[in-house]
Amino acid sequence: MKEMVRITPRDLVAVALKPLKAGETVSYGDGEITLKDDLPMGHKAALRDIRKGEAVIKYGFPIGEATEDIPAGGHVHTHNLHTLLKGEMDYEWHPTHPETRKTAPATFRGYPRAKGRPGIRNELWILPTVGCVNDVAKTLVKRAESLAGGSVEGVYAFPHPYGCSQLGDDQNNTRKVLANLATHPNAGGVLLLGLGCENSGIEQIKPFMGDYDESRVRFLICQDVPDELEAGMALLEELAERMRLDQREDCSAADLVVGLKCGGSDGLSGITANPTIGVFSDLLTGMGGTTILTEVPEMFGAETILMNRCENEELFGKTVRLINDFKGYFESYHMPVYENPSPGNKAGGITTLEDKALGCTQKSGSSPVRGVLAYGEKVTTAGLNLLSAPGNDLVASTALAVSGAQIILFSTGRGTPFGCPVPTLKIASNTPLAEKKKNWIDFNAGRLLENRTLEELGAELMEKVLRTAGGEPARNEANGFHDLAIFKQGVTL
Q1: Cα 274 off chain centre by
Q2: pLDDT in tens, 31-64
Q3: Burial of 30 (0-12, 13-18, 19+ CB in 10 A)
Q4: Does the pLDDT at position 25 exceed 90?
Q5: What are the helix and strand counts (H, E) for the chain?
Q6: Contact 128, 137 (CB under 8 A)
Q7: Cα separation of 12 and 455, whole Å?
């Protein structure tokens, strides 16, 4: 096994595949270097002398500039590297004209729906329209636990603090989130639970639900009934009885929508886990399926790669607005556009936002960008889509579910236990993490550094996704972790 890896021939740095010591002479594939400093796993060392002010290249692109002279073999990190990112920019389209490579069709055992895509779960969801009834929803879940079993695969509430005291687009986004979840294919039954005096009540949410299957949704306004728990249980029992008729059947993988997300990353995420997800994305889109890449701030520094893969100039323009609008959002709060890598990311070897972004976009594979979605917008175009949402793990994962993802692939080099409203598969970037946190991790992409190829791991991940879509629980589901986070963008009255 090599001690270090140089990702592309242009790179001025190599990444440590295990902890290394100063004074060691190590191989990075096509050469050797003697280290000047200790190097934790996932961290970078210079392959030649780098001058102060010189762009540092990784993944074949700049990840920042040196703030001091760095000797060959020296540790390259936050102490001597700074971002090159700036605010809103003008872009030119230089299309690379990638093609979607056709792949053999596949099936999974899902729940066909009368309207829309099949579900990979048949769960009973309680969606509060406003934070005031969160505890009512949670109490109903406890009382309704006996309804779970057979085709009713679980009863879950998704509390949140919003639905009132909001204005404009911020308020409409909350309505879209709740409407899209109320019509999500993984929910075999939904109780939309309102208070009665909120400004995003049931009557305001209904218009955003579109043409939905009325047999699967019930509504309850707590202020309209003497006992909201008794009334709520009656509606849940009615929904559960209907859901017991549902059965899994063979469904085409072309009907799958898979969200792509990373968090708690390390220096190996862009080398192992994210490229493995990228191979999966190409396989699924080649079958006619759909993937959605989000975390717009984690595209900063790699955005031109995605822009040049846009299928047409209209999508290029939408992607430019996607990037610049998010930069404008940061600037409107007088925040820098480059402040994203968390302490955990930095401890794992990621230095700048460009470093994070160039690894993050590996999840998109090599297929063309065929759609660009606003926050809260449902996906309608098969293939690779980009979605406007922040980098925050639960907010972005929820946004993917809201846009129609039945399952999330979440790469991580640090580990995390959370789950969003849909199954959230954790893809480890390194074997030590996968072995340490077996109760969190669903798939070990760190095996790429041992004796596996990207193609093998991508195909194996496809099989894992199809089994999960067919009912095999993700770790977050086995642990009982299901959460919701709405992107709050406006004032609170």
Answers
A1: 11
A2: 999 999 999 999 999 999 999 999 999 999 999 9
A3: exposed
A4: yes
A5: 13, 22
A6: yes
A7: 27
